[in-house]
TrEMBL record:
Entry keyword set: Signal
Signal peptide: 1-29
Higher taxonomy: Eukaryota, Metazoa, Chordata, Craniata, Vertebrata
UniProt source species: Sander lucioperca
UniProt protein name: Uncharacterized protein
């Protein structure tokens, strides 16, 4: 059963989590900005849909694995930014500068995690090291 939320940021819609993450007018401009930025940076048409953005399903029409990973990470950064700010009313919290900060923070965490996983020179992963 879907949970109903009182929405924030003045849209005054009582909606679901899908409204908060995808259809709310407060966040559609953010998703549009993410799509436009990714399309420019990757030099391809990046189609963003709820399956890709909300569920993390591999984006359709992007054949390059590194581009797919960037799109997936960008969607994760967008969801994180929305969820971290959904109950507060900060001006410009959904602008592309805040999104870029969130994206770079997630990218940095991903790089750090990969260093830990591949630290063992004998080919053992982190699970073997901490046993
Ligand atoms: Zn709303």
């Amino acid at each position: 059963m879907l949970k109903i939320f009182n929405h924030w940021h003045g849209c005054r819609v009582v909606g679901t989590l899908v409204h908060s993450l995808w259809t709310c007018p407060e966040v559609t401009a953010l998703w549009d900005g993410v799509r436009d930025t990714l399309s420019k940076v990757l030099n391809i048409n990046v189609p963003l849909d709820p399956a890709t953005c909300l569920l993390g399903i591999e984006p359709q029409g992007i054949n390059c694995k590194s581009a797919q990973n960037i799109v997936t990470l960008a969607c994760l950064a967008t969801k994180s930014l929305i969820l971290m700010n959904w109950k507060v009313s900060k001006a410009n919290c959904f602008d592309m500068y805040n999104w870029l900060d969130e994206f770079l923070n997630l990218r940095s965490m991903e790089e750090t995690a990969s260093l830990l996983v591949y630290r063992d020179g004998d080919g053992n992963g982190l699970r073997a090291i901490i046993r």
